[in-house]
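Re: export button greyed out
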Amino acid sequence: MDWSWLPKYLPMLIQGVSITIQLLVSSMVLGLLLAIPIGLVQVTGPKWLAAIARGYCTVMRGTPLLIQLYLFYYGVGSILATVPELRQSFLWPILREGYFYAVLAFALNEAGYAGEIMRGAFLSVPKGELEAARSFGMSPWQVLRRVWLPRAVRNVLPTLGGETILTLKSTPLAALVTVVDLFGAADRVRQETYIIYPPLLLVMVIYMILTFIITRIFAAVEKQIPVRR
Amino acid sequence: MFPTVLEFGRNGFGDELARGALSTIIIAASSFLIGLVLGQFGAAAKLYGGPVSRLIANVYTTVIRAVPELVLILLLFFAGTRGISALGQAIGYGPVDINGTLAAILVLGFVQGAYSTEVIRGAIQAVPTGQIEAARAFGMSGSQVFFRVVLPAMLPNAIPGLANLWLVVIKDTALITVTGASAELAQMTKNAAGFTKRYFLFYFVSGCIYLAMTLISNYFLGKLEAYVRRGQPKLA
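Workaround output, generated via the alternate export path:
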């Protein structure tokens, strides 16, 4: 196996790891923030809002992420490019980048999957606890912030850990819209040197290490939760 | 109102998309079946195998499930096509050109196998041992125990997981576009969108086709699950 390319491309690979992590964290955070209202309205919201949320989850989970990403990058991107005012605005340098569309697509996709998880999580919190919180005179917002949400999230932490790994495994799609993430860096090596296997194998090992680190982080967080046994 | 580019025939890409959708279904179904067969062997190796086969099965499921599908598809695609081509040369056939669809099926099937292994293993383990012992006590042979007791008892546990895998493989077929070697729906959409420059329209339509596939699958998988669960007490 030929590893002579490694010294030259090492900085690019390290940069790629950092971009992959940035992609993962930003799309997970945005996706989970969106998932909370999506899950909540399906449990307590008015019927029409619950129906919209359910439909959103079905569409996001029923279509390939690749198609969603291309729809945003090529579809929405090409429409935005026809608006001259936008092209001159300060937003254009962001709206031009594949990175922006990748985070957008990953976050919206993740919101669909996590919204479904959060729906179950909100349902799993015992009714008595919510009633107790209400009888203390907490406002609905306080009940949500102090009791309902923290209890719900704790119940599904292991599931969210698995979801984070799934999101990590979809981040290489960003390389298809010009982002040079970890996979993008390996692909660049392949294009420039015609060396196929060593970079892909190295990247494969790095993804496995990242997966391992994520499981460790979630295990540590789960340990923090006080449980009476 | 109906855009010309979506028409069937020479003026539009309707027939190309339809052929792509058909190809997607064929690729998904074949790789799902390959995955099922590999999953059977994997689960058998994990549950009843010796130390070596158990190790191989564990490495297989761990590595495949921890690495992004996109990376695996690219890696296995290059390695697979080259390997078979080299094999062809070695036995004197000359370089063999492997059909892109076939390569896609094999690669996706190999990936599916790792996930199926875990689903099937879990489902078999959930069958109460007492039932298997009872079957043995009746004097059933190994295959009789499997087909008469283990299989019907594990199906209700396995169907939801396998149904999920079927939905995953439909969506994973779209990843084959990175190899550029196949003519499934995502590739056809890419071609049509690039040719007409109507990106939004084509990706939207193709998203709708995928959605239709998953929704129709969901309907039948629900029926299937109800069928294998017949005779089980209903949950409150």
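The radius of gyration of chain A is 21 Å. The button fix ships in the next patch.
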